[in-house]
Fold:
Amino acid sequence: MSSPILKRKACSTKIEDHAHTVPYGDRGGVPIEPYLTVQWYVDAETLAKPAIAAVEDGRTKFVPENWSKTYFEWMRNIQPWCISRQLWWGHRIPAWYGPDGEIFVANDEARPSESPRPLWRR
Structure:
């Protein structure tokens, strides 16, 4: 099935039918459709740098010492951490959208409006 809007606006170069398997829920028997949401990531590499430094300069020690190699391997190859998945478990991300769509992050919603350069005001 092709989109008449895409055809009318000439937004696509080619439209092909594609057969795929639609999963159905066990309980209701209705199709399970993907729900796309905004994804939030933590820059884990930046967070790992002081932790690596703490082990390198001896402030943190592993017992037995051979675990340091495993630690460094993991921390030096760390990937961004998608914290959006935590929302399903009830963990809140301290981020809000201002009236202009600007995203801000703070400990609580009131804090940005108290700052010298507030991102938005009520």
Q: What stands out?
A: Residues 44-56 form the longest helix (13 residues). The first strand starts at residue 41 and ends at 42. Residues 52 and 95 are 28 Å apart (CA to CA). The chain has a mean pLDDT of 80.
